[in-house]
Write a structure and sequence with these properties.
The protein has about 280 residues and is α/β, with parallel strands linked by helices. The protein has helices at about 5-20, 45-50, 70-85, 90-105, 110-115, 120-140, 190-210, 230-255, and strands at about 40, 150-160, 165-175, 180-185, 215-220, 225-230. The structure holds iron/sulfur cluster.
């Protein structure tokens, strides 16, 4: 199905903006899949790093393993999916069953990690997943959600001609009303909040060819819930963040790392043990 006219323009806009910045990425023939080993991926993480200290991208490595916070979200979203389909057990019981099923039937790295937990660790992850599902369900407000609502959706869009992919995740998508929900836990500044709202709107539009109507950001720690309609300003915010992240990522990978910019983000940086500019 052809994209909506606004999204067709948006794809052109994104291509015109990002293509010159991604010129050193591997070329990709029309209608071909970018080579995975040469693919430059721009995700929430790259956006945040580029907005804080772009030089920190030079210290990125492979996925360093499952942690409780990742597992909580992954399992919590599976609990929500079951609740939305009419499961009537309490969220903790469902979370325990989701965890058990993952360990028994999956060959995923999450299943391997869960299998290493003792009974105390498994109980803690179960409790956390149930809490995530309960708090998120409360934030969605209209429950059960309309039919077809999905939890844990990934959106991706490949830049034509170069091996560069924009990726965003949405914790819930209410397709009927085109509402996107992102769930966060904890501190962020105003710019970070705007990126949280704008990024999934942009990538969802580029991927699906349809413009979301709104994005809601739910902070599970503060309980704050903010909903914005997807306007041109929102899309501009995301495009600006994309350009910054692409520029920084390409510099790190193909030319020279950008200058450091120490700040509170240093404490999460993988380079903090070797970076001379680290701020502790
Ligand atoms: S330690 Fe701080 S200043 Fe150094 S690269 Fe990481 S974020 Fe940047």
């Amino acid at each position: 199905m052809p994209p909506e006219p606004r999204v067709a323009d948006l794809r052109d806009e994104a291509s015109a903006l990002l293509r010159p910045l991604a010129d050193l990425a591997a070329p990709v023939a029309p209608d071909s899949t970018p080579p995975w080993d040469q693919l430059v991926r721009i995700r929430e993480h790259e956006l945040d790093a580029a907005a804080g200290c772009a030089a920190s991208l030079a210290f990125e490595g492979d996925f360093d393993g499952w942690r409780a916070a990742f597992a909580r979200k992954r399992l919590g979203l599976a609990v929500l999916q079951r609740l939305a389909k009419g499961a009537t057990a309490d969220p903790t019981t469902i979370a325990a069953d989701v965890l058990d099923q993952e360990v028994r039937t999956s060959t995923s790295s999450l299943a391997s990690w869960l299998a290493t937990l003792g009974s105390g660790g498994a109980a803690a992850v179960t409790r956390e997943a149930a809490w995530f599902a309960t708090a998120t369900r409360r934030g969605i407000r209209s429950w059960p959600p309309p039919r077809g609502t999905t939890f844990g959706t990934r959106f991706a869009w490949d830049l034509p001609g170069r091996a560069l992919r924009l990726e965003a995740s949405a914790d819930a998508v209410i397709w009927e009303t085109r509402d996107v929900l992102v769930v966060v836990s904890g501190e962020d500044d105003g710019d970070g909040e705007r990126r949280d709202l704008a990024w999934p709107a942009l990538v969802a539009a580029l991927d699906t060819g349809k413009l979301p109507a709104s994005v809601t950001r739910l902070d599970l720690v503060s309980g704050e819930r903010r909903r914005v309609p997807v306007t041109d300003d929102v899309l501009d915010t995301a495009l600006t963040a994309a350009a910054r992240a692409v520029e920084a990522t390409m510099a790190v990978r193909f030319t020279a790392p950008p200058l450091t910019s120490p700040g509170r983000w240093c404490r999460r940086c993988r380079g903090r043990d070797v970076c001379p500019d680290v701020r502790v």
